[in-house]
Specification:
Blueprint: H1 25-30, H2 33-40, E1 53-57, E2 60-63, H3 64-72, H4 76-82, H5 86-108, H6 115-137, H7 147-156, E3 162-163, E4 166-175, H8 182-199, H9 206-213, H10 217-220, E5 225-230, H11 236-242, E6 254-256, E7 259-269, E8 272-273, H12 276-306, H13 313-317
Antiparallel strand pairs: 1-2, 3-8, 4-5, 4-7, 6-7
Amino acid sequence: MKRRYESGLARDSGGSAPLEKRPIIMNILSRAIPLCLAALLATAAGEPPDNGVVAQRGDVRLTGAELDDALGLLDASVRAQVTANAQTLSGFVRERLLNMSVVVEAKAKKWDTQPDVIRRMNETRDAVLLQTYLVSLVPPDPLYPSEADVTEAYENNKTRLVVPRQFHLAQIVLTAKPGGTPQEEDEIRKKAADLRAQAVRPKADFAELARKNSQEKQSADKGGDVGWLREPDMIPAVRDVVSPMTENGISQPVRVPDGWHILKLLEIKPAGQLPLLDAKPQIVQALRQARAQRLVRAYLDDLLKAQPVQLNEIELTKHVGAGK
């Protein structure tokens, strides 16, 4: 999930068009990387979970080391967003483990032996090879960009460097196991409704209710506090409930994939201008990426100058319209 104020926001020092409108060769290639990496994930079976396992679905397990590897492949700003709190990180883990489960299922059905799939996997492998090689040709310049470059980019993109609304939430979570019976689901829903009724009583202590009843241990130990969440980053079911709430309001029970949540809105930060100091890391990253793209383009242009591509126009025309 990429921050809306982090993508394509800066101009390069030459004052050219916004970076989001420039050709981004390496970004396009990098979209294929998760497919290749997912195909290489290994799974463990038949052993009980241990302390090194972060999540498990049947025999498919995600270890702490594998999670660290996956997070390490993310862009720094995206990684910071994913790891900002337990809710965003657990969402990332669930999605990754589900993808791993699907890969295991596909391999069990020998999907990876189909000729078309093999061709696509080879294309992905070559894309990773190409991207990583091109990156190695343009090492970052630690002196670039200058403070003046950063300030200019900030001023040029000030209207888009904004922070969305943020909500400080606490929660009480009642988990629901996948595939539970309607009766089990109804029992959990009724318990959630009862806890919500207790939470809205005069002088009720939401934090204490969370400590005693919430089944999400990390936040329960902190009185249900899950920290600050940006409005665009919330899952739709939670965002729809929280957005119209006022401070200290308590929601009706909300059904999300892992169970029922009762949410308390502790504080709200309105949307506003992102200060230069806070915007600087992503501006530096955007300017360095633009520099790398320019250097890669120059390298490719030099290759063409040294040995141009020769086209067989007769053969080429045979393939015109082949995609229709």
